[in-house]
Amino acid sequence: MFELSQDHEDFRAVVRDFAEREVAPNIAKWDAASYFPTDLVPKMGDLGLFGLVVPEEFGGSEGEDGSDFTSLCVAIEELGRVDQSIGITLSAGVGLGINPILTYGTQEQKERWLPDLVSGRALAGFGLTEPDAGSDAGATKTRAVLDGDEWVVDGAKAFITNSGTEITSVVTVTARTGTTADGKAEISAIMLPAGTPGFTVEPGYHKLGWHVSDTHGLSFDGARVPQDHLLGERGQGFRQFLKTLDDGRIAISALALGCAQACLELSTDYAKTRQAFGRPIGVNQGVSFQIADLAVMVEAARGLTYKAAWLKDEHAAGRRSVADVKHAAAVAKLYSTEAAVTATRIATQVFGGNGFMEEYPVARFYRDAKILEIGEGTSEVQRMLIARGLGLPA
Fold this sequence. Notes:
Low-confidence stretches: none
GO molecular function: acyl-CoA dehydrogenase activity; flavin adenine dinucleotide binding
Strand content: 15-25%
InterPro entries: Acyl-CoA_DH_CS, Acyl-CoA_Oxase/DH_mid-dom, Acyl-CoA_Oxase/DH_mid-dom_sf, AcylCo_DH-like_C, AcylCo_DH/oxidase_C, AcylCoA_DH/ox_N, AcylCoA_DH/ox_N_sf, AcylCoA_DH/oxidase_NM_dom_sf
CATH topology of the largest domain: Butyryl-CoA Dehydrogenase, subunit A, domain 3
Radius of gyration: 21 Å
Number of helices: 11
Number of domains: 3
Family: Belongs to the acyl-CoA dehydrogenase family.
Order of helices and strands: HHHHHHEEEEEEEEHEEHHHH
Keywords: FAD, Flavoprotein, Oxidoreductase
Number of strands: 10
Distance between the termini: 31 Å
Organism: Terracoccus luteus
Largest sheet: 4 strands, mixed
């Protein structure tokens, strides 16, 4: 049965100290200015956060197969407990940036890109979503045509994390590269280094939340890269990225857990000290019962998140099936993200008028939480995946 080890808890303490020391004192001003703290990324790299699932050969954790996915979830939870934008920077940096290269890249591709990504000297992005292809990712319109020994890429991507920072080194994108024998689109994955002519990073979005996270649209107009920038097998890009998203859903569940944990802690502390009618508001059942509900949601989200992470590690060791991981990831992502949205609403209500003020972190968590139900597969998609996992008709 899954259980966090003492090593995991010791690691949690290290990441929590880092988040409290490096992120907490600065996050309000970063959020207000929509400022991406580039200098923070190498510090996260120095702590080993980007290398938790990467073998030592490429600068990651010791051992042939890297460390464990559970440790990554612990780190994402603890960063997300202080700020969701910093948590998603790590989650996307590893799950969407490093992981596809590590899983499907050639030895040469791994040696070229992974050391800088693991150290935090660089970030990588994952270009799947398009203006007209979100949950229906198979409707990709971006195209890549082989011209001699180069891929020529044309199209656009939307809402891509870590894609336009000063240290972004590469973005992997899905593109139509032909048609299969049954007439369907052949989708492959192509790596586009930052600065490639014809590869344009659009201005950053004006977002409801995640103000500190780097998010851009991308456009490609005759962007040329060498033929060896194909990631994995030609025609397997869609399958590769679906597998990548399974892992990413567990990471988003950990991020949501951090949000809910923060709301529980903030609400509990506030209810103990905020006075109304001559006594702490926590005396009132209307407040205390809501906080009790928060505690239950946090415990449930924690159990589902780390069960899914444990299954992912068990699968890596050959002891669990892909289907086990896929189902657990969808369940954890669905519950934890919806719980996080509810948790921010409860916390804002507990804080009353103060909860509507930006001086209090619950306002930031309230803004940040909604995207959790959308990114890496909407709640509706998760329900579809869960239903299919139960054997219901597709």
